[in-house]
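Project standup — Tuesday

K.O.: blocked on the structure for the chain from last sprint. Re-posting the sequence here as requested.
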Amino acid sequence: MPDLEEARAFYGLALAQLGYDEPYTDGVNYEWTDFAFSADGPLTRRLHIGFAASSRAAVDEWWEAMTSAGYPSDGEPGLRPEYSEEYYGAFVLDPAGNSVEACRHGGTREDLGCVDHLWIRVRELAASKRFYSTVAPYSGFEPGHDSEAPGGFIGEGATFWVVQGESTENLHIAFTAPDNDTVDEFHRVALSAGYQDNGAPGERHYHPGYYGAFVLDPDGNNVEAVCHNR
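H.V.: unblocked you, prediction finished:
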């Protein structure tokens, strides 16, 4: 993410404008339900993230607030029929140049999560699809049919996509697992398929009961399965 103060200003405004509560923070990490950034580590670059908006009017107001605050537009509010007939979105750039969107469409989530979708740019589309298809059974996402969603993975209320291009850097994706055994299996299957370990299954210090495991995707991004045991 960008410099901490820049990230706090940008994402604080972006998510407050969409009606999401103040983040949990320990002064280093900032977390809104299913989105977070940290002052630790290198910048995430070339990511596209879409946040769920409550209405088309909310998308319009979001874009106006963000651009009025000085953030560059990456696409004015409007229909995007290339995604779906009802898809309505607007785009700005965060201080690190990542594309950030507010969107509303026929399948927009109504729960407490704020992430509607991620687009991850990858060097080799086929290799990345193989990786995410391998871990999909332990992630809560399923590969979409290529005729409808090439490179798309569909979850409950959210999607993520791998698309060909200059690869996204320094991204951490955490998938929620229903139990510790699923975390163990995520890690075992990924390593058995030849992917690189980035942290064996076990408890972590983030909160009591946090149980996670980490592997690297083909572009070096950190991919986690976690059971929060809450």
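K.O.: great, moving the ticket to review. The domain at 4-170 is CATH 3.10.180.10 (2,3-Dihydroxybiphenyl 1,2-Dioxygenase; domain 1). The chain has one domain: 4-170.
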